[in-house]
Aspartate-semialdehyde dehydrogenase (Reticulibacter mediterranei), 1432 residues
Amino acid sequence: MSAQLSSRIPVAVLGATGMVGQRFIELLQGHPWFELVALAASDQHGGRPYAEATRWRLPNSEMPAEVAKLPVLPCRPDALPDVKIAFSALPGEIAGEIELAFAQAGVAVFSNAKNYRMTPDVPLLIPEVNSDHIAAIVQQRKQRGWSGCIVTNANCCATPLVMALKPLQLKFGVEKVLVSTMQSISGAGYPGVSAYDIVDNVIPYIGGEEEKLEIETRKMLGEWEEGRGFVYAPMVVSAHCNRVPTREGHLECVSVSLGRDVSPEEVIEAWESYVPEPQQLGLPSAPEQALLYRYEQDRPQTLRDRDAGKGMTTTLGRLRPCPLLGYKFVVLAHNTIRGAAGGSVLNAELCVSKGLVS
Amino acid sequence: MSAQLSSRIPVAVLGATGMVGQRFIELLQGHPWFELVALAASDQHGGRPYAEATRWRLPNSEMPAEVAKLPVLPCRPDALPDVKIAFSALPGEIAGEIELAFAQAGVAVFSNAKNYRMTPDVPLLIPEVNSDHIAAIVQQRKQRGWSGCIVTNANCCATPLVMALKPLQLKFGVEKVLVSTMQSISGAGYPGVSAYDIVDNVIPYIGGEEEKLEIETRKMLGEWEEGRGFVYAPMVVSAHCNRVPTREGHLECVSVSLGRDVSPEEVIEAWESYVPEPQQLGLPSAPEQALLYRYEQDRPQTLRDRDAGKGMTTTLGRLRPCPLLGYKFVVLAHNTIRGAAGGSVLNAELCVSKGLVS
Amino acid sequence: MSAQLSSRIPVAVLGATGMVGQRFIELLQGHPWFELVALAASDQHGGRPYAEATRWRLPNSEMPAEVAKLPVLPCRPDALPDVKIAFSALPGEIAGEIELAFAQAGVAVFSNAKNYRMTPDVPLLIPEVNSDHIAAIVQQRKQRGWSGCIVTNANCCATPLVMALKPLQLKFGVEKVLVSTMQSISGAGYPGVSAYDIVDNVIPYIGGEEEKLEIETRKMLGEWEEGRGFVYAPMVVSAHCNRVPTREGHLECVSVSLGRDVSPEEVIEAWESYVPEPQQLGLPSAPEQALLYRYEQDRPQTLRDRDAGKGMTTTLGRLRPCPLLGYKFVVLAHNTIRGAAGGSVLNAELCVSKGLVS
Amino acid sequence: MSAQLSSRIPVAVLGATGMVGQRFIELLQGHPWFELVALAASDQHGGRPYAEATRWRLPNSEMPAEVAKLPVLPCRPDALPDVKIAFSALPGEIAGEIELAFAQAGVAVFSNAKNYRMTPDVPLLIPEVNSDHIAAIVQQRKQRGWSGCIVTNANCCATPLVMALKPLQLKFGVEKVLVSTMQSISGAGYPGVSAYDIVDNVIPYIGGEEEKLEIETRKMLGEWEEGRGFVYAPMVVSAHCNRVPTREGHLECVSVSLGRDVSPEEVIEAWESYVPEPQQLGLPSAPEQALLYRYEQDRPQTLRDRDAGKGMTTTLGRLRPCPLLGYKFVVLAHNTIRGAAGGSVLNAELCVSKGLVS
């Protein structure tokens, strides 16, 4: 470990002043493989110290003292010369060009932005779900002549859904999925949702979210075929997305039609016995349990279960028959950790452990 | 009207101290047909004035001065001798026997309790949906030898669903329904949900609610056949029920499979052209519009739409294709008005206007 | 009245797209004296219809149909030629110049902005409190050579405080005041407070608010002396201002030292017997009761009392001895009605009724 | 330490099923000095396992597995024979007799109940504030012939106030205090406050709270004089207590009149240099910093600062002049940890370290 520490990989956070940017900073503190050496942001902070450029928004931590002093640099590769990995929390409006520039400059970009998620040679990666999709990186580099790469993570509400579906797909097949989400305010970033819009309210609409949830799920549960690219999973997914007045955690009600008749015990067993690659490899950010099934009749709950596994465990519960599709259940994950910054860090760890980034 | 006023029907509220009981009192103020003459409650208040027996819980009104002085009587027919109609807000644990006693004593009971909703000769009535189900009252009286009767209203989350489905059923047929609810805290009564359980939280479970929503929908959308009784609608309904931190209003995401191919315009037209019996009859509690479709992409919202039509209008929105079932949409109704006390008062008005109660 | 209606005064709303601007529009619907003929806003809407320029934010009303079609004009007097009264909901950054230009052009400006509140010849007016301060308008016009004028209303948390103190000052004198506020999110405008900052939180700081509350109170409770100007009340006021997660209504805990020993009964009697000028004159926006004292031990409450008198009544309660200053009590008023738009409309009504605007 | 571990003191929690009881259990997990060996509760659980008798209410922890199996015993000393220390989270209605019985039976009772707080020979103890008050225990035992004892902790809103005042009293003297609280829902226990009462609301009344806050502060900041007993601090304290919709943490706005003129720097220095006995002794539950002053203009905030020092640090901020009393500031502490269970555990640690309990 000390050897590792002495040679940690220098990383940067792009879009470091926003909420997901701050989550990246929080998660990178004391990381055994990665050393946060640079911060960049979209707007012109002119190299001012991070502590002057922004305020810390995360309620349960403080701005790390050594980060407070770091200058906020422009989002250009030449401004961040020594960086090997860039974690991108950039907004979609500007992420496209910037991430491309970094990848061209040889940096491995792990992005939380939506821009390249559906790009044919870019993996939409959740290591517990589709770690084999990293094969696309090889083709991406070959085809584009890059030494860097772009790897994306999923929309924050797609993450818990595919985490829940993957073990079922593997064992039984998944044919139809109907999901209704109750998403926290932090999913909209900062300042994000006006308090006047959401206190004592539910907003049954989040722009573009349902479309992303429906298509990203199928890409992630699909296959990477050499020479052919991504083949989307042939399932039908229908989504209802809602904003509710909770701080963190996206809770989802799912009805699912499986490929064959199975007992409830088999479904739960599929989840409980699922030990995906990050847990097998012992990746630093992998929680002990990727999936946790709770047997209480009223769990998971947003408040009580979002911090499971330091926000990296996906919690399941309430499996019961669905008169329409076969089974229904509830799934929850922390949206700014598991569904955003933590997911990207885990993606980077997988790529490092596989020798794709060094 | 002045004639009516001089001969208003004397009514009582059973379970007058709870939240739905207070809604009944609120809605009966100045009612043109009904005169609130008596209050009763389950526990022993020994005839104390209402103002001493309870506190007013509704935030936007005050305890009416003339109600404050009324004694809180025991829930026995002999204690309320002149009453023709009893509105019951009793809890399920005691509603069964008490409502029976009143019906036997010749009182028309309009109940918000769950006890008799599924009883074969008791109508589960929403006047905009199944006003013909009042035919069951005739049989109920004949069979049981009563001059009174029991009429129930639906569970507070079943009401908006069937309101939305009825015009579709009439025009196109409805085959499959998947509904996910976001229900307000007032749905649990008072004191109901502990603030510590729900602030910054979603609870994806309400005891017995999903079962009620699935079966009540089919009874209400079914048919009353003379000599045969209720024939449930042959549709499949699957429900996910959630408690969210809002005060009033139940919002529901619905996916639906119709009996034939129709355009979105036809679906909306089915809702907008629907003028059910209460509106035709001009019943006092019927809102101008039974159903209101909103074209904004983010409506209905719990806070903004729950009070439409003084809490009696059901608001719809976001009709769009569902990749799985055909169409999806959002529906909202006020749970303690439209879905509870207001629904019962409207039921009574229908029965009076049809000559079944006088 | 029909005569009045036929000759209603043409008025405009400046800053019509924000939350207070919308409150102005809401309150001016059907106003017997004022006819809303023009809307203006700070940013360039190029004459687009109001319905296209903004969304309606108020939860319990809809954008009025005739307002939806009005063009959103630039905030220049020449763009609103026929307007006699302008209600200003402009932000402080731009209100100064614009309001000045309108006053110079002969328009009576009733402003909710902070810019001129402390100006020596501008009244800071609450008709129930210091209606005699309108005398400053005469001097303002003479001195500045205007035919228009500028009249300001108070900060939204100063309003309930001075409403509570005025009757005490009149009868007993007020020497020391310590006030701690719990202010709603709508006080920050729209989008205002980020939901991520305030859900499950209290923020004990609102920029500039404590200073405003301390000094405005003394101006409003002071005297206008001909030739000398405003003489501030010689009382000491100390304020703590807090933001809490409520939608509307500013609740304030007050400790007060009166000019002489009085009984609690006398204090309450001072409030209950207070019939200020708007109620005497029967101004259209004056609620029946300017002040309402509630005897329940836990009132006023933000949710339950903010809408008293359609949001124009100030509610008091919990009068009890203060070991330090003599008495303590709680006071509440609706911040965007009584403390903002409604206050300005009432100011205009007072000036019209006194012949200062026509 | 391993020696200590092998001989940890056996302790029990009385009132183990409520919210403060659960906090006790949570805080006693892995405690180096205390071993939780028994649970008791007021109502008859007949020895059923804890997991069956109650549900875990705390959102950020799980019921410890070894505690889940413990039987819930009756609150009688003979039912808990081996216990040396009892932590009492009993409600006031029954705490009186039960705590007395345990103390008589030789058990050291550390109570969170209000019953004995004002008793002349019972210390109302906050180790950072009045650790010398434990001298009362000696007299309590002598006078009453007990080998056990009763030690109480303060009301949850008195704790942050006296924590803030003590260093000021020591250095400058404190003469007058005016405090206005914003208290979280968890302060009312479980189920405590109905969500319907508090969502979107502030309730400016908590029964008995203002009286407790005013008198407990003076006892804690007073002196224990041998032979004379407690001499209350001669300061004047006036309190306004409010319930706001936050989960945990009591925030308080304080105006204070000190014994002499001091600069703001001196006040902050008094707080920052204060190293009370628990920190000097290194008691296990003592946070690194008893008091933390934050220099940001909008801190402390309920959400962001309540968990400082694992909920045991008291956070201060916003020191500024008060026109009335001299200085004003804001103080915050976690009400169910620092202000309840954590405070009692720290009290027990102090008594053990002083040789009063073994």
In short: The interface with chain D takes residues 59-60, 199-200, 303-304, 307 of chain A (CB under 8 Å).
